[in-house]
Structures are given as C-alpha cells and as structure tokens.
Amino acid sequence: MSPQETHTRWLKEAARRHGFDHCGVAAAVFLEEDARRLESWLHQGMHGSMGYMENYFDLRTDPRKLVPGARSVITLLKNYYPAEAQQGDLKIARYAWGEDYHTVIRRQLNALVEEAQGAIGQFGGRGFVDSAPVLERSWARRSGLGWVGKNGNLITKESGSFFFIATLITDLDLVYDDPFAKDFCGSCRRCIDACPTGAILPDKTVNGSQCISYFTIELKDELIPAEQQGKFGNWMFGCDVCQEVCPWNRFSKPHSEAAFAPISEVLHLGTREWEALSEEAFKKIFKRSPLSRAKYKGIRRNLNFLKRG
C-alpha cells in the first residue's frame, strides 16, 4: 500500500473516532464553475447585507491561495439531526438547539489534526468550520459525499441533509474520491414550493437576501422589512422548512453528539416565556448557543415581528 493510500485510510478512520460521520477527499484545484456561479450570485445582490461574502473571492475559489502548497481538501460531515421535538409555539432551526457547532467541531477537528501530526508526521494545513472563505458544499460534492440540492444544502443518499460541514485543506498528497456525479433531486420541487419567502429559485439558486434565516440571524437592521410580514410562520431563529419537506430527510437519523443535546428552553419556551425573558437570563442560558449570534436585541426584534404578523 502506498503512503498516499495509508495516510488516506488512516485519516478516514480517525475522522470517525473524533466524532465525524463522513469523510471525503478531493484534489485542491481552482473551482472554475463555482467561481462563475458565485460571481453571478454576488452581482445580482443575493447576499443582501452580508458584505463579507464579497471579500476574498480568489481565496474562496482556489484553496491553494488560501493555504499555500495545498494539495488536498478533506471534507468532514457531522450529523446534528435531533431525536427530540420542540414543544413551544416558536420555532428555532435544529442546528441551533445545542452548543454552538463552531466550538464543538473546531475542538474535534483540532484533536484530529493533532493526532494526525503524530501518526503521519508533520504536515501543513488549516481546518475551517464555517469561518473562512471556503465553498464547503462544493468540496463535499467533489469529495463524493453527496450532491447540492435545489435548496442549496448538501444532501446525502444515506442520511439526508442535517449535517455540519468542516474542511481541512492540507499539503498532504492523498487518494482522491470520485466526485458525486448525479443529482438525485430530479424533477422534485418540494423545497421550492414550500419556501415561505420564495427564496429558492427553480435554477438551483438560493436568494440569500430573501431567506428567513437571513432575516432572523444575518440581518442586523432594527426592523425586518414590512413586506415580509406574515411569511415567517412561527420561525423565530433560522428556518428548516426546505429540509423538512425534502424526501431525502426521511432517512435522517438522530445524532449521538452530547454537545448537541437541546437546551431545555429551546424545546419548551413559548411566546409568553420568550417575551418575559430578561437580557441577563438570555445571556446566561444561551451563552454557548448559536442564538447568541443574534443577541438579545435581535431575538426581541424577531419576536416583535412575529407578534405583528
């Protein structure tokens, strides 16, 4: 067995030991097609107020510029689908039910790299968890892990789409997986038809500036645009509608990550309890939660918007 084969097999086995559900490897190359799509998406203003999406365009489309000397892009998937169900009348996207995934996955990714340095030898590289200009879903597809659905999510045939994606860009020479070539969405348009704000377009483009997650998390304005009134249902933070209606998510299985165990308040607080929650209590309860990203002020804004609807 060649060193490339040995290292690749070791990394994939170690990824599972460190809490990841899937691992795939692709060659570090320039993403020409993705560069064209990203440029068009930005030109049409579909990133809304997310100005950071315009930054580091060259780094987003070529990992060798992000990590000099890069030869391989390792993609890791981690399941976050919960076994529990929310009891309150306000909805929070499932990814935000437990501890902030950035912290959890970064901890596991760092542990994986540290062990790899000892087992394989010193190598160069950087790990990323939704924190740098990396086109994670494109690399996941190139690594053979799944396809990008019409709703913009990576979908796996075995377990659906409730996964976090981490990326390790390295100068290791590894054995590359075959890209996932087929799109199993076919003629299905359930996510398109179900999207409350019409953010999912028929040409496999998602208008980020019209997504409920954008309005309730990314948008920092004091008010959500009035024209969106009545469209959010009960979604207070994020939105899972396009994943809930996706046929492939009938294969989703509950995760086994203790850090993703739902915070009790996420599952049980109703509108009245949320409205009565003080800023001090919010900061204490959601200190390690993705909800802290919207801050207390943002949550209050979202509550008021839903109340008016």
From TrEMBL:
Q: Where does cob(II)alamin bind?
A: 60, 130, 151, 154, 165, 213, 239-240
* Binding note for cofactor: Binds 2 [4Fe-4S] clusters per monomer.
Please give the InterPro entries that the UniProt record associates with this protein.
4Fe4S_Fe-S-bd, 4Fe4S_Fe_S_CS, QueG, QueG_DUF1730
Principal localisation: cytoplasm
- Protein's pathway: tRNA modification; tRNA-queuosine biosynthesis
Listed cofactors:
[4Fe-4S] cluster; cob(II)alamin
**What is the catalytic activity of this protein?**
epoxyqueuosine(34) in tRNA + AH2 = queuosine(34) in tRNA + A + H2O
Quote the record's binding site residues for [4Fe-4S] cluster 2.
Answer: 195, 211, 239, 242
Q: Does the keyword Iron-sulfur apply?
A: yes
UniProt-annotated binding residues for tRNA = 220, 297
Active site annotated at which positions?
A: 130 (proton donor)
Q: Which UniProt keywords apply?
A: 4Fe-4S, Cobalamin, Cobalt, Cytoplasm, Iron, Iron-sulfur, Metal-binding, Oxidoreductase, Queuosine biosynthesis, tRNA processing
What top-tier enzyme class does this entry carry? oxidoreductase
Q: Report the residue ranges that make up the 4Fe-4S ferredoxin-type domain in this protein.
A: 176-205
Q: Where in the cell is it found?
A: Cytoplasm
Q: How does it assemble?
A: Monomer.
Family to which this protein belongs:
Belongs to the QueG family.
Q: What protein name does the entry list? A: Epoxyqueuosine reductase
What is the species of this protein?
Flaviaesturariibacter amylovorans
